[in-house]
């Protein structure tokens, strides 16, 4: 369960930060894509950020792979 918690938090924070007024936290202005939204803060903003669906897909993939890894142990 310890390994699963960061993946769950990552998915939750992605949803919370989607429309954040803080530009560093907002997922709508990020210039790069990262599977871990929590650790990929950036001061740089872009006019054409990555799509919301791509970020959700990566976060869900991370959660799914982590769960598969835990079950496989």
What sequence of helices (H) and strands (E) makes up the elements?
HH
Return the average pLDDT rounded to an integer: 81
Q: What is the 3D shape?
A: elongated
State the end-to-end CA separation.
12 Å
The total of beta strands comes to: 0
Annotation field: number of helices: 2
Strand content: under 5%
Structure notes:
By secondary structure, the protein is mainly alpha-helical. It has helices spanning 4-17, 52-72. Helix 1 (4-17) packs antiparallel against helix 2 (52-72). The termini are close together.
Name some characteristics of this structure.
73 residues, mainly alpha, 2 helices, 48% helix
Question: SSE layout and pairings?
Answer:
Layout: H1 4-17, H2 52-72
Helix pairs in contact: 1-2
Short description:
It is built from 2 helices and no strands. It is mainly alpha-helical and 73 residues long.
């Amino acid at each position: 369960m310890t390994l699963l918690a960061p993946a769950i938090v990552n998915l939750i924070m992605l949803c919370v930060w989607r429309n954040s007024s803080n530009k560093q936290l907002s997922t709508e202005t990020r210039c790069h894509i990262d599977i871990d939204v929590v650790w990929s803060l950036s001061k740089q903003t872009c006019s054409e950020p990555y799509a919301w669906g791509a970020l959700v897909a990566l976060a869900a993939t991370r959660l799914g792979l982590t769960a598969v890894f835990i079950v496989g142990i």
